[in-house]
Amino acid sequence: MKSDNNVYPVIDMKATGRNIRRIMKLTGLRVDDVKEFLGLASSQSIYHWFDGRSIPTVDHLYALSELFSVPIDYIIIGNRSYGITERGCRFKDRIQMYYILCYEQKSG
User: Fold this and answer.
1) Is the C-alpha dihedral spanning 41, 44, 48, 54 positive or negative?
2) Does the pLDDT at position 38 exceed 50?
3) Is the Cβ–Cβ distance between 67 and 29 less than 8 Å?
4) Number of alpha carbons in the 13 Å side-chain half-sphere of residue 80
5) Could you tell me how far CA 68 lies from the centroid of its own chain?
């Protein structure tokens, strides 16, 4: 599906790496914590993410979203803009509503 400005959505690898580092700092996680959680043999790939030389695989993004307690879209930084949908609701608002609904279902 094309966006209004005809720009193909792409991931900004450097910004995504900086974001992973920022989230880790906010959550108090160290590189060794992430390495152990993902079952990686070395920390090298994590440092490659930080530098923007590579990005986590889909499986690793899925696991990181669990570790960080955020949706995958909060980890990935790209060039797309959500803007307003046909229903007049911004995508981010829908995510927040989704979490409110899920939380109410689990706790109720």
Assistant:
1) negative
2) yes
3) yes
4) 15
5) 9
Token digits for 44? 């090298």
DSSP 17-46: HHHHHHHHHHHT--HHHHHHHHT-S-SHHH
Note the pLDDT tens digit of each residue in 40-84.
Answer: 999 999 999 999 999 999 999 999 999 999 899 889 998 876 543
- From CA 26, how far away is CA 64, in angstroms rounded? 14
Go through the domains of the chain in sequence order and give each one's CATH number: 13-83 (1.10.260.40)
**pTM across the whole model:** 0.70
Residues 6 or more apart in contact with residue 89 via CB below 8 angstroms: none
SS3 11: strand
